[in-house]
Design brief:
This protein is mainly alpha-helical. Helices cover about 75% and strands about 5% of the residues. It contains nine helices and three strands, in the order αβααββαααααα. Strands 1-3-2 form a three-stranded antiparallel β-sheet. A hairpin with a 3-residue loop joins strand 2 and strand 3. The longest helix is centred in the first third of the chain and has 29 residues. The radius of gyration is 22 Å and the shape is globular. The N and C termini lie far apart (about 70 Å).
């Protein structure tokens, strides 16, 4: 029997290479636009043509167009036919909805992690403690951006160790939406030390294999953060973020 030989058709190989390159360019454009939205280089309410955004990013228009469609699914932009791309703003009501989701997600994630077998559970608790230590160091040094970064890393690690892909995708999307609000209000918040203590409570419950305590600790932490943040947005008249 004659064994089939791999295709040596140069057109087929060229087509595959072109497809891989296109995917890579779209991924690059998505990452660049997402980062620009998160750090407010593309501020809420900013609207521009695909060509203008492509020029700002040093990219071509086609991958920017395809990346914008993905970002629209994430709730970060709106693609306006013949008018370009609009960076969406958040209102306090949006933040309330986001917290409704993260309260439930973080609680369930903590519950799942606390029920893991011992090696995985202890590794998760160690990772959470490391991020909390980084928060404490940043707080002691008055470095608010570093505190915010470590805080975000803690919650990302909690979701990651829960090993639920759908949960991870949902949380990533809403974290991207809420990141600007969290960073904008860091200078206004007064209970950063409370967050550190609450994170330690979550990690202790996970280390002790106590899903009920872990769920309650994670929920109460997010509820307190919500009850601190939303009044700040209202009292300072922050209607759009």
């Amino acid at each position: 029997m004659t064994r089939a030989q791999p295709s040596k058709d140069p057109d087929a190989r060229t087509g595959a290479d072109a497809g891989e390159k296109r995917t890579s360019l779209v991924d690059d454009a998505y990452a660049a636009m997402r980062a620009a939205i998160r750090n407010a280089s593309f501020a809420p309410g900013y609207q521009a043509s695909e060509q203008e955004i492509a020029l700002r990013l040093g990219m071509s228009r086609t991958p920017v167009h395809e990346a914008a469609i993905r970002l629209q699914e994430d709730g970060l932009v709106r693609v306006l036919p013949r008018k370009g791309i609009l960076i969406l703003a958040l209102a306090p009501d949006d933040m309330r909805e986001i917290y409704d989701v993260v309260i439930a997600m973080d609680g369930r994630a903590a519950e799942l992690v606390a029920a893991l077998p011992e090696p995985e559970r202890l590794a998760a608790a160690q990772a959470l403690d490391a991020h909390t230590d980084a928060m404490a160091d940043a707080h002691a040094g008055g470095d608010l951006p570093a505190w915010g970064q470590a805080d975000g890393a803690f919650h990302a690690a909690l979701i990651e160790h829960a090993r639920n892909g759908r949960m991870s995708r949902i949380v990533q999307a809403i974290n991207d939406q809420s990141h600007r609000a969290r960073m904008l209000t860091l200078n206004l918040r007064r209970a950063l030390d409370a967050s550190i203590a609450e994170h330690r409570r979550i990690a202790r419950a996970i280390r002790a294999a106590d899903p009920v305590e872990a769920l309650d600790a994670a929920r109460q932490h997010r509820i307190r953060a919500r009850d601190e943040l939303l009044p700040l947005l209202n009292s300072y008249g922050l209607k759009h973020l």
